[in-house]
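Input.
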Amino acid sequence: EFLQFITAASLIAKPLRALTDVNSVIQKGVTAAESVFSVLDTETEKDTGTKELGKSTGAVEFKEARFRYAQAETDAIKGINLNIKAGTSVAFVGRSGSGKTTLVNLLPRFYELTSGSISIDGHPINELTLNSLREQIAIVSQSVTLFNCSIRENIAYGSLADASDEAVIEAAKAAHAHEFIEKLPEGYDTQVGENGVMLSGGQRQRLAIARAILKNAPILILDEATSALDTESERHIQAAMGEVMKGRTTLVIAHRLSTIENVDTIVVIDDGQVVESGPHQELLNQQGAYAQLHQLQFAEEE
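Output.
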């Protein structure tokens, strides 16, 4: 009995140590489960629209559009009126926090208007189903989300997953991405890594533009697509943006004013309101808010 006790006592130490490690495993599991269930328990977007919109021409109109964030004391967007003709390009410029991104995010109904209306081809967007509304819009943002799969699957994903290889390659060529893709070890089958870690910022941005070209939506939103790139990458992106903007209604949020000099209309936003709008040269001649922004940025670059 004494030998049995000694043997059992010596053998129990390891299981006891293992038991203390169980708590850390359980805590990791609980934390992971909380993050998973927080996503699963999130309410789905409310889709109050009932109309299905076919292929749009891309005409967009803002009428007295107002928006206020929850718990905010004042409106972020204050009664904006804009009429954007189909196939034209409009750039939104202004200081940080002026409401440019908020205004553009109202179009795909990422936020719901507080009052006023936005319409596409004369149809108020709140009457359209979210699916049919967002089928009309392609977005290229500053932060590109890529998945840990092949380049082809990253260009053609979601509703575009059935796109042919030829269509994917054509989109990549138009986005000036085909050249660097061909140089990769496995071409379009190259795995890009978690969130595209295998690619540079400019390459990721060109894949995002290729997505937009492949989607072939009549309305395009470019949200500061070149703000964080070096000069060489910016040249490629500028050329790709020129391709993707052809024949589409384009809304550009611009940080570098040099990138939007050729758009049809420049809209200057300040404190949620339109303070100036017109072509580049006309606004410079007015010597107003846009001219001041342009002069300030030109002096910084110098």
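The chain has two domains: 1-42, 60-301.
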